[in-house]
Every structure is written in C-alpha cells, then in structure tokens.
Amino acid sequence: MGAEVVIEGLTKSFGRQAIWRDVTLTLPPGEVSAMLGPSGTGKSVFLKSMIGLLKPDRGRCVINGVDIVTCSEHKLYEIRKLFGVLFQDGALFGSMNLYDNVAFPLREHTKKSETEIRRIVSEKLEMTGLAGADKKLPGEISGGMRKRAGLARALVLDPQIILVDEPDSGLDPVRTAYISQLLIDLNTQIDATILIVTHNINLARTVPDNLGMLFRKELVMFGPREVLLTSDEPVVEQFLNGRKRGPIGMSEEKDSATMEREEAEAAAGHSDGSPDEDVRGVVAQMQPSPGLPERVGARRRMDRVMRILHTLPAAAQEGIIESLSPEEQRHYNVRPSHGAPVAAPARHGLADTQQIPRVTGPVPSQHQGELPADQVARIPGGWSGNPGNPGNTGEAPRPGSGYPPRNGPGGA
Ligand SMILES: Nc1ncnc2c1ncn2[C@@H]1O[C@H](COP(=O)(O)OP(=O)(O)OP(=O)(O)O)[C@@H](O)[C@H]1O
User: Fold this and answer.
1) Under the phi-then-psi rule, with left for phi > 0, alpha for psi from -120 to 50, and beta for the rest, what region is 354?
2) Cys-Cys link to 48, which of 17, 53, 94, 331 (CB 3.0-4.6 A)?
3) Where is the ABC transporter domain (predicted)?
C-alpha cells in the first residue's frame, strides 16, 4: 500500500509574496486525491514542496515518520525515492528515445543490470500503452504519448506516492479521459497514494477519492470528494461551474464592489455567457478498466469515509449514501430516509418529491472498517462537534485546516 502523507501548517512564500499558508491535510494511503485551484494559486509549488524541491517557510510534511521539511539531505534523498512525479510536460530528455528516458531513473538510482532494466522498462511501457514506441524520440510523439512516457518513467522505481501535475494540460478531452483512466488503473494495480493537481473539472468530479482546493493563499477545503462536490462555498460553486460571476477574478481574487456589480447585472438579465446549469452534486466515480481486479484503495476509502460519515456535511452524507449499493447500505447500517422533505433540491439535482438520505445512527463498530485510527482522515476538532470522531484533534478549526472552515457541519 502507498504511504500516507501528513501535512501540517505548511506555509510557503517567495520573498514578500505569500503563496499559501497553514496548509493542513492528510493524503490517505493508497487513495487518489486531487487539488484544485485557479491558476497561480501555488498548486505546482505545493507539489514541489512535497518532494523537497522547494523549501517551505514552516510546517511539516511527514512521510513514513520523516518530516521532509526539516530532515537531513541524506534522508530527503531516501524519501524522494518513494515518489514518482509526472511533470506537466512529461519532462523528458529530448535527445533520448523513450526507452532510455524511462530507463534513466533505474540507471541513476539503482545498480540493476541492463537485463533487469529492460524487463522493468518494458513492463512500464506496456502499462502505459507505449509498447512498441520505445525507439521514438519525445519530439516524434504526441502530447498524450509524452504524458504517458512521463508516467512510465515515474513508475520505474515502484513509487509509493505519485504526484501528477496537470495531467490534462495540452490534451483534448478524450485524451484527458484516457490518461484519467490510466491513473485509476495504476492505482488499482500498484495501490500507490496519488495526488493530482488540476483545473480540469471533469477529471476532478470523476477521478479522485478526495478533493481539495487552494484559493486566496489558503486551503479552502480537503476531504472526501463528496464534500467538495456538494459544497455551498461560493468559490467552489464558481470553480466547478466555470462561471465568471463569483469571488475568482482574472487575477485570482475580486473585490466586493466588482462582485456586487456583477450580481446586479445578472439580476437585470445580463448574460456573461456562463452556463446556467449547476454541475455540483456527486457523480459516479471512474472505475478500473474491465478485467482489472477491484480497486482496494476504493474499498478502504469507503470504510474510512463511513467511519467519519456522521461528521460530514448533510449534502455530502446524502451523496455518499446514494452512491452505495443496497448491500453496502445494509453493511454500513445506513439507509435513505423516508418522509423527510428535501432541504435544497436544486443544489443537488434532486426532484422536490425525493427524500434526503440519512444516516440511521452511528456506524456500529463491527462495520467501521479495518483501518487503524491513524489512517483515518483528520477532521478539525470543533467542526464535527463529535469528540468520538477518531480523527478529531480537539483543536479549534483554522481557516484552510482541511475541511469547510466557515460554515460548520451543514456547510450552509
Ligand atoms: N521558483 C519560484 N520563484 C519565485 N516565484 C515562484 C517560483 N515558482 C513559482 N512562483 C510563483 O508562485 C506562484 C504560484 O505558482 P504555481 O506555478 O505553483 O501556480 P499554479 O497554481 O500551479 O498555476 P497554474 O495552474 O497556472 O499552473 C506564481 O505567482 C509563481 O510566479
């Protein structure tokens, strides 16, 4: 199983330019997480800080018990071997063919024989659909193939953690769907912890188990995908729907006067071309390709999420329970409620006559999954108000500390 990554109070600036501050989150082991955020909010800087390519000003990033912010160069070198990184452009060496590009980390970091290297490189090229393309130079292949070659290279050292910077950049929607499928299939096959940085909404809605968002130099939220996908946070609503109207402006943040003017213009019937439809709500998650086994990360994640279900906002609970099969609902002792009116049908795509699913009570201990407490997502104390929550730290919630910071459990 992939490694857990625990990030606490991470803060980064360049000179006087603050990039983000007090970022606190845990990447659950073997799960797929994604970080959203408008351009320039520091998503790439975040990835680089996680592997020690950039040094945060303060905070911790703990992997296998080692804090990479403060550890020695030697330790950092060792920890970096746990990572596979897919940079935006694949970061391939232009003068080397794909075979040598993919073989490069093995020749640099291991003493493996050329026979062993050939076996590993062939396996990774096969996994990424590049078998037969090993003699090609990066300049001779498409952007999608370059991404896949970058991914093949990121896999050769059997990483426990895979960081992916904008897998969709430069790709059409169809190629983006293929690379998304590849990431889910990889997670199924090697059970690595994956963090994807993206502003592709479709990918964010369908691929990850967990979703977070950076904005205004802070982590707006991070948690199970259903929390962000059903969030009422204006910045999340604007971002998921790709609207101009909202707190995000051309240079990231709008002033309140501009926002008020836009609201007034919209009320007066002015169309700015933004879509009317609200895409928020929980949609089906991408599954492994047919023929692959069950994704154990998804099963572990479901157990973990059901343990913290009662701490999540009502809309997220609703989305999670609705996505369970009847057998799973019985297993976790939850069921859709009957007779309760829907609180906000328009937001979640439910008809007026449909019912809000409800948790029928605390999840019984025999159904709480097998995860030890330290592998359960951390919920800031005071948000859930539930001291029994295994992830509850007992601290007051801080802005950007991992889950909806302002609105409390209901998120409203
Ligand atoms: N090495 C550096 N030195 C100084 N400033 C930097 C450095 N790297 C990044 N920045 C600044 O940090 C900010 C965040 O950059 P970053 O590339 O992380 O944003 P991003 O969210 O990944 O954007 P995009 O989605 O457009 O790729 C930018 O203002 C950028 O200019």
Assistant:
1) beta
2) 53
3) 5-241
